[in-house]
Amino acid sequence: MLPWFAKGKFPLYLAPMAGITDRIFRSICKELGADVMVTEFVSSEGIIRRDDRTRKYTEFDDAQRPVGVQLFGADGQRMAEAAKKVIDWKQPDFIDLNFGCPVNKVVSKNGGSSLLRNCSALAEVASAVVAGVGDQVPVTGKIRIGWDSNMINAVEVTGILEDCGISAVSVHGRTRSQGYSGEADWSIIDACACSAGIPVVGNGDITTGLDVEQRKRQTAVHGVMIGRAAMQNPWVFRDAKYYLKTGHHPEPVCSTERWKLITRHCREAIAWGRYGNECRTMMAMRSRLMAYTKGLPGGKRLRSALCKVESLCELEDIAEKYLAHRNKDGNYAAALTT
Fold first, then answer.
1. Domains delineated in the chain
2. Residue 101 is a catalytic residue
3. How open is the CA angle 13-17-19, to the nearest 5 degrees?
């Protein structure tokens, strides 16, 4: 069994999210209590053909361990070759195979959740990667509960992956056709966990410590994976652990702490340089800023200002005005027009 599933442990995973879970954000979530990291998904063909360009997606710091690199593709032998390249680069703790991505550009190439419609091809991919990697690192997989409401086959797919030598499976409780709409079906996730002889991690609609506690208590999952909630609130991991320990929710993060983390994230992203110079990095960070500030008082006016930022100095100026006006009279929106 993977060591992070040892007796008594219930790991909290940060879900892989394209354009979100880069090296900087993973470090932040690790500091705030996430137990297991998974990189953004990476094209196996991209790794084979454009090593230098693709390495950025597979970068991680040792402090993030255990961390896995997630690959997608439809050719088992090519994916095995890509996995071995990744292992040669930096020896991740595991390789994760993406069988759940619903995005059209992935599905159209027979990758991601497309393989849920073709279990023989899915088994070929999983078996080839497991055999290719050998005993260097474990191989895990991530799936959805099915292609659509007429093809819900997560229990079957979990069994197939187990038979192929996959060490653990993460199950998102929606079908591919649902995308991220509707509610995650945890009864199917539970059925996967009950039927499998390997760890099953549940994913979908986890936003609070109470959610984590309920899924731990009410289902057979061995851990949970948190994705979109962490984009807005990376403190969700810390809060969940506090709730599991005490049965109470901690005090909400104050605005000052939130802004401190927001500016830190941007500063470190600029220093990293993955997105280019400072202006390009801040433009790339705009969607992240929208997520971070969701739910803050005066949020609409705040996001109108943040969607135009081009420098760290501009961001810090917005933060200073916001916090100063909050301390004066609480009229957040007006602070951004002065």
1. 3-246 (3.20.20.70), 255-335 (no CATH)
2. yes
3. 140
